[in-house]
Write a structure and sequence with these properties.
The chain has 483 residues and is mostly helical. The chain has 23 helices and 2 strands. The chain has a two-stranded antiparallel sheet. Helix 2 runs antiparallel to helix 7, helix 10 crosses helix 11 and helix 12 runs parallel beside helix 16. The longest helix has 27 residues. About 2% of the residues have low confidence.
Length: 483
Amino acid sequence: MNYTVIQRIVGLLLMLFSLTMLPSAVVAWWYDEDAIKPFVYGFGVTFATGLALWLPVLRANRDLRLRDGFIVVVMFWAVLGSFGSIPLIISEQPSVSVVDAIFESISGLTTTGATVITGLDDLPRAILFYRQLLQWMGGIGIIVIAVAILPMLGVGGMQLYRAETPGPVKDKKLTPRIAETAKALWYIYLTLTAICALAYWMAGMSLFDAVSHSFATVAIGGFSTHDASMGYFNSPLIETVAIVFMLLSGANFGLHFMAWRSIRLKPYFVDPEFRAYITVLAVVAVVTVVYLYFTRTFGHFGTDVHHGVFQAVSIGTTTGFTTAQYHAWPGFLPILLLFISFIGGCAGSTGGGMKVIRVLLLFKQGARELMRLIHPNAQIAVKVGNKPMEERVIEAVWGFFSAYIAVFVIMMLLLMAAGLDQVTAFSAVAATLNNLGPGLGDVATNYAGISDFAKAVLCVSMLLGRLEIFTLLVVLTPAFWRR
């Protein structure tokens, strides 16, 4: 293990992350708010800590290995959540505990969107902007962004990219060099954010709300600057803009890159994961709208359509925006919507969940086992897009699914042991492990009412979801530390 190289990279990344606190200080100055001090102090502490880690190992130029990459990713996300909470701890408004501040910071950075803060409409704009910016940085992955810079500092980035990038196929790159891949992802992410902000603004949001909500939309985060979330605006046009960009952000960014490079939409239509992604969301949206209509929940078909479609896309992509109290909807709808968050977005997207490609492979593998019962001697390949998948990939998907279920059960039992009821415990784990945000029961609107122990458990759940379980679990195995 190259500990000096790990220390050097963590120091560099902390210094880089400290810069994200300065825009909020500028927002506080612009709106003449007494909220500059928390961000200046937060920047100073974070930058100084990063500098203190970096300087002693300044000349550590050994190559970064794969195992080192896993350590850097896990350490950085854990440390990031702690340091990201500093402005929230220092700030007088909102007044939150250390545990709550860390929970809010990790929720933002993991793009979960679960919040412990209420009264958002009365908070300083600098605090609101900071929460949104945390999600935006977490969406693309601070480490993937840094990969474009690290090669210039003499540190290879492929190991970090493989440890950070979600999905069952880790080695696929958009361009031959990893730095170019990171830059391509960054440009696509930045472009989508800018277009989304412009669309929100033209649809009727204020400039501040448009920029803030574009951060959360493209990051598939779900934080809002208002307690009522998207329902605050009561605008079908704004909700339509949100639906479009949630769908785009939940798709594989590699498809966006290929479509942009070829100036054609064909990459979307031929990709089996994208087709499955759109199909699942469309079916759930139709079921939701029809059930709302026949139960006369809103009493108007147009209202049923715009609430039903919005919530299906928002929760299915694990964004977590709300236009209505979906947890109070009749029958099976709240559970149905929560269940589709388990599928989540596509691999290589900012979405959470198990990812569409994994669920698609699990379905195809199940179909193959049924065929084997009928034809025991047949050689049947699992194909995605007419391409047979390697058995190693199928095994990895089943391994991930098994680990996911085991982690889910353990987390849920811990929450129930902490005093949460079954519905609250189940939905809280689902909402955090899938990086969704809003749950059911006592966590339907916020997480302020649960114990500190439960919040700590859910912080781990959010990190596991963001790092797709294996990245965090692998460093806890004895074999990882053996030479």
